[in-house]
Amino acid sequence: MTTRYGLRRTPEEYERLRAQARAWEDATARLLDRVGLSEGMSCLDAGCGPGETMRLMAERVGPAGRVLGLDADGALGEQAQEMLRDAGHGQCSVTAYEIGGETLPGGTYDLVFARLLLFHLPERTEVLARLWEAVAPGGTLLVQDYDLSVVSTVPESLVVEGFTGLMTRIFEGIGCDVRVGTRLPALFAEAGIGTPDGTEIAGMVATLGPARMMLEAVVRGALPAAVARGVVEPEGAERVLARLAQEAAEHPDRPLLPPLLVGAWKTKAPTP
Ligand SMILES: C[S@@+](CC[C@H](N)C(=O)[O-])C[C@H]1O[C@@H](n2cnc3c(N)ncnc32)[C@H](O)[C@@H]1O
C-alpha cells in the first residue's frame, strides 16, 4: 500500500505548518495533559511535521522519556530534529518514514498521537489500525483532525462560500476527507479500536482580514496537486482567491469561523 500526501514541500508550506501548529498548541497541550502524558513515558508523533507537538511531549515526559517522530518528508524531519536539539530536547528523534499498511517502527508506546495526518490519507482506517497496534497495553491513542465544513462568516458571504466550495473540491479531489474530525469516532470503530473514551472540539473565532492569508495558503498548498489531477483549473481557482482577497479588504473585521479541530482518544486495557 502506498500513501499519498497532496501538499507542497516548500519553505512557504513548512512555515504555514509551523503557524498552524502554533495556532493549535493550547488545544493539543490540553489533550496531552488530559490523557495523562507524564514523566518518563514514551510517545510517538505520527506525521510529526515541524515537530512542534514533539516539543510539547518532551516538556511533559522529561529527559527520562522518549519521543519519536515519524514523517514521510525527510527534509522537514531534519528541520524538526534540529529545532528540538536546539531547544535541549535530546530525548526526541525524528525518522523519515512513510506510514502505510505496515507495523510502525520502534515497538510500542505509552502515547501514540497523530494530528492532521488522517485528513490527507485515503487509507485512513488502515493507518488508524496501525497506530492502535503501536499503543502499549495501558497506553493511549490520541488523534486530532479537522472538520473544514464549518468555515463561514457572519453575516454569510457568497464569496466566502465560493472559497469554501473551492477548498472542499481541491481537498476531496486529491483524496482528503474534509470532515474526518467529526468522523473520528466512526473511524475508530471501523479500525477495530472501539468507541473513543472521549472527544473534544477546539475552535476559535477569527476575523476575515487576518484569516484570509492563512485560508489562501491552505488552498495554495494543495493547488498544484489538484491542478495536476484535473480537479480544478488554475485560472478559476485564482479568480476565487482574488474575490476572497477583495472581500477581506472590504470587510476585514467580519467574524469568521475557521476549521474545527476534533480530538478523540482511547486507552488500551492493561495486560492482566
Ligand atoms: C498537515 S501536516 C501536520 C504536521 C503535524 N502533525 C502538525 O499537526 O503540526 C501533515 C504531515 O504528515 C506528513 N505525512 C503525510 N503523509 C504521511 C505518511 N504516509 N507517513 C508519514 N508522514 C506523512 C507530512 O509530511 C506532513 O508533515
Keywords:
21% strand; alpha/beta; 272 residues; globular; binds S-adenosylmethionine; Rossmann fold; seven-stranded mixed sheet
Overview of this structure, please?
The chain has 272 residues and is an alpha/beta fold. It has a single domain (11-267), classed as Rossmann fold. The protein has 9 helices and 10 strands. The strands form 2 sheets. The chain has a 7-stranded mixed beta sheet, sandwiched between helices. A 3-stranded antiparallel beta sheet has the order 6-9-8. Strand 4, helix 5 (124-133) and strand 5 (135-147) form a beta-alpha-beta unit. The chain is globular and about 60 Å long. The chain starts with 10 loop residues before the first helix and ends in a 5-residue tail after the last strand. The model has no long low-confidence stretch (mean pLDDT 96). Residues 3, 5, 17, 21, 47-49, 52-53, 70-73, 76, 98-99, 115-117, 120-121 line the site of S-adenosylmethionine (SAM).
